[in-house]
């Protein structure tokens, strides 16, 4: 008996039939109903918060309110759909638009264009309130508010530091370093200075030089995650007044909103993300076959790296991973692909310790995974040299990849886990 799977690859699908008796798990996110009335859902969350009084009791007449919002790299959050009802609730609490400033949490990303502000937050928001951009490299724009217990000085954007009330907005999803996104990430790295970001993100590297990355800074892990704990200390120093974060469905619609205390409400949102996207498994497989879900999630290797990371959680030590990643823009973005010019992983790590970047970290992690398992990528023929340079085995068809996998596994007697949407689903090994 065979089971047929249709796996996304670019704008197409690739079919594969697998023996049922060899299939260990099929990893898919849980179905979640999409919010039907977004303004009503936002209003309900603001009126029934977790860990704080309702928003209209948090703010008062005369307050200068600062909203922190994710930049265009998190466009999936769809701020344009839930910021207007948040502004309306602030207005109803006697906070006029003229007393509200939105700070774009760029971290070290480039500035938005005026058009990108409209794309990310919507025409209505752009016309109603002042928008400023927190750009980490501009040191003069930041002020020190303290030092964490791990010795990292916390510099934050002055506009945020000077506000009477700070409200965090964004979306919560699994994060391959911080455990989960959203919440305190609006502050670190969102509106933090460059030296603070470098100091915090360095915790993602192993304490010992030459040992690569920290085993504690991974998807879904908060307890013992130095990066997350340092972020949380920085957020506590600022003491945001309120939080409004979104959780999405596997289809990219709003599953719901959490509001209230900047940490407690966020934790509740993390639990919802775990419930939807954290898929329990009872054992790891010899072979994992996965797809990012097609374009645009497999537009390049950088976007596909999340797929690699998640699939790695489902495979046995020394096993094989086959991933379908078309990568039509294989050399984008340059600040990621350039890291593969460091052929030696040790050189890649040493350069990363000199100046941490998230693309550099992901390039290092991909290289380390490819050393620990046989990582095979089904991709376009023209990508072969680049993929090989990255330390990954290229294949131009799923049939070719399966032949390589069976050679690595020493025959046809092996277990298989299939991940049709591996970019979003996180295997959680029970027991």
Automatic annotation (TrEMBL):
Positions of the Lactate racemase C-terminal domain: 283-422
Superkingdom assignment: Bacteria
InterPro entries reported for this sequence: LarA-like, LarA-like_C, LarA-like_N, LarA_C, Ni_dep_LarA
LarA-like N-terminal domain span: 9-206
One Pfam family per UniProt: LarA_C
Protein name: LarA-like N-terminal domain-containing protein
Organism from which the protein derives: Sporomusa sphaeroides DSM 2875
Biological classification of the source: Bacteria, Bacillati, Bacillota, Negativicutes, Selenomonadales
């Amino acid at each position: 008996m065979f089971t047929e799977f249709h796996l996304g690859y670019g704008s197409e699908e690739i079919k594969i039939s697998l023996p049922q008796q060899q299939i260990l798990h099929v990893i898919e996110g849980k179905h979640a109903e999409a919010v039907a009335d977004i303004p009503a859902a936002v209003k309900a969350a603001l009126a029934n918060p977790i860990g704080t009084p309702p928003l209209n009791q948090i703010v008062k007449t005369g307050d200068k309110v600062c909203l922190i919002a994710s930049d265009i790299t998190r466009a999936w959050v769809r701020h344009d759909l839930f910021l207007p009802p948040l502004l309306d609730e602030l207005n109803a609490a006697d906070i006029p638009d003229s007393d509200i400033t939105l700070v774009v949490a760029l971290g070290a990303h480039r500035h938005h264009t005026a058009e990108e502000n409209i794309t990310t937050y919507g025409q209505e928001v752009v016309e109603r309130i002042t928008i400023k951009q927190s750009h980490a490299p501009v040191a003069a724009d930041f002020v020190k508010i303290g030092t964490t217990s791990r010795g990292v000085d916390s510099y934050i954007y002055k506009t945020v530091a000077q506000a009477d009330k700070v409200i965090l907005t964004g979306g919560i999803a699994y994060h391959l370093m911080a455990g989960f996104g959203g919440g305190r990430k609006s502050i670190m790295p969102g509106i933090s200075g460059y030296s603070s970001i470098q100091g915090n993100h360095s915790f993602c590297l192993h304490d010992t030089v030459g040992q690569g990355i920290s085993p504690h800074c991974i998807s879904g892990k908060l307890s013992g995650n130095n990066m997350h704990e340092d972020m949380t200390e920085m957020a506590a120093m600022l003491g945001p007044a309120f939080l409004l974060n979104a959780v999405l469905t596997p289809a990219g619609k709003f599953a719901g909103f959490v509001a209230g205390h900047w940490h407690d409400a966020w934790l509740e949102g993390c639990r919802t993300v775990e419930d939807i996207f954290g898929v329990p498994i009872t054992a790891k497989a010899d072979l994992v076959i996965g797809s990012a879900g097609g374009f645009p999630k497999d537009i390049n290797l950088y976007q596909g790296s999340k797929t690699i990371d998640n699939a790695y959680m489902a495979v046995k030590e020394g096993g094989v991973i086959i991933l379908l990643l078309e990568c039509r823009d294989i050399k984008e973005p340059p600040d990621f692909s350039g890291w593969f010019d460091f052929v030696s992983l040790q050189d890649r790590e040493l350069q990363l310790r000199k100046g941490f970047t998230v693309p550099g970290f992901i390039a290092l992690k991909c290289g380390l995974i490819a050393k620990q398992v046989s990582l095979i990528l089904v991709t376009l023929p023209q990508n072969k040299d680049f993929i090989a340079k990255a330390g990954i085995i290229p294949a131009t068809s799923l049939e070719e990849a399966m032949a390589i996998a069976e050679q690595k596994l020493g025959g046809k007697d092996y277990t298989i886990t299939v991940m049709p949407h591996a970019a979003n689903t996180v295997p959680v090994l029970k027991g």
